[in-house]
Amino acid sequence: MNAAPHRLASVDALRGCTVAAMLLVNDPGDWGHVYAPLDHAAWNGCTPTDLIFPLFLFVVGVSVALGMLPRLEQGAAPALLMRTALWRALRIIALGVAINLLAWFLMPGAHLRFPGVLQRIGVCYAGVALFAIYTKPRTQWAAIALLLIGYATLLWWGGSLAPWINIISRVDSAVFGRFVYLIDPSTGREHDPEGLLGTLPSLATALLGLRAGCWLRQGQRKTLLIAGLVALVVGVLWSLWQPLNKNLWTPSFVLWCAGWSMLALLAFHVLVDRYGWPALGRRFGVNAIAAYAGSELMQIVLPALGWQEPIYQRLFARPITPLAGAYVASLAYALAFVAVWWLIVCAMDRRRWYLKL
Questions:
Q1: Which of 64, 191, 226, 331 is least surrounded, with the fewest CB atoms within 10 Å of its CB?
Q2: Left if phi > 0, otherwise alpha if psi is -120 to 50, otherwise beta: which for 355?
Q3: What angle do CA 149, 155, 161 make, to 5 degrees?
Q4: For residues 206-219, average pLDDT
């Protein structure tokens, strides 16, 4: 397998479109008026929005295959690569915790949360780098199988998969206490969608991305297509036993999302790299952490300053709602939010400013 000579524009574009989608669904003008496809499933099930974060973790694995393995093949010391990956993972985790601390400090009524999206990204990045550097493909496949089967067994052993009382939420309550995303006001029970045990199947998602990235490097497009279709079918069949559930990151959810992720990677590769289509989303992709973290900070600072509601009401709700309804006004705000960040990352790209944690 030859070292990749340069970054694949398709992967940057796919990563960027994923980040743009994250901003779109995370930043509506009014959480009470969000179109169903742009909202998460209440518990079981999978909306298009539920596919976004797994796709990002999948691309993390792809990026490790394309960026780290060539350096390893060119003679880079494994220990040095691993140390670099661990430091990067720690910085991503620290950034996620810092954003949570800032939200708790500035936003009225906010409570402190320790887990989070960036924290899970950091842990999965470190894990997939470890496997990429020190293990062979057979070991990686064994790890994926062990993670999925072991996690499925844990869910079965833990009893009910219902909200608040499942074993994943119970462990998060024991480990993090009140420092989680959701607290049930009626019972005081806790739950975090990016909690501790759910990181295990999330690592399986990233490892599937690692294997897909290796197929991409080898030009095995047919393998990528077949694997994507097989993952979708197995995910559907597994969901008959354990349902698709993003909050619990069930094994069926891992495979369902991995299937769509493989097909999306293949489509972007064929259209962008082979047929020369524009790499839409690339500018978000090359500054993915800057766009995501910056947007999170903006969504903390605007409400803290008392600016978000007036902006939404004056520029979106009042002029748009009488004509098209509250859902359109909320969506218009989200689209404008993404557009603002597109302008920011475009300016950064033109000046060759890239945030590399």
A1: 226
A2: beta
A3: 140
A4: 97
